[in-house]
Design brief:
Blueprint: H1 21-32, E1 34-35, E2 41-43, H2 49-59, H3 72-81, H4 100-111
Antiparallel strand pairs: 1-2
Helix pairs in contact: 2-3
Length: 112
């Protein structure tokens, strides 16, 4: 798995850095997938969710946005518990700021 496999690669980054409950819920769908009323996946979870979560929670803690399906507060709680996801990230660079640079950041990671 690599960053180029991210479900969010070509999605408007504003969605992942919104503060409203609707935006956060919509962003989480790209990470966690969506199920119908029978519990069957309509959209499958992101293939690199664990890698993304590990990157944004432990390797290069991100202070903004939804990463790996979790909000900033959820990632902070996970980090405080010390529960690291098991997947290993590829070669990563630290993200400088949210939104506009997020897309460029993912594309750089995907090109490696």
């Amino acid at each position: 798995m690599d960053w180029k496999d991210a479900e969010c690669l070509n999605v408007d980054t504003e969605l992942f850095f919104g503060t409203g409950n609707y935006q956060i819920a919509e962003a989480r769908k790209y990470c966690l997938g969506t199920k119908d009323k029978n519990g069957d996946y309509v959209d499958k979870p992101c293939k690199i969710r664990e890698m993304c979560l590990k990157y944004a929670t432990f390797d290069h803690p991100q202070l903004f946005g939804v990463w790996g399906g979790l909000s900033v507060d959820q990632r902070k709680a996970l980090r405080n518990r010390g529960s690291k996801p098991t997947s290993k990230p590829g070669r990563n660079k630290k993200m400088v700021s949210p939104c506009t640079r997020f897309t460029n950041h993912l594309k750089i990671l995907a090109s490696k």
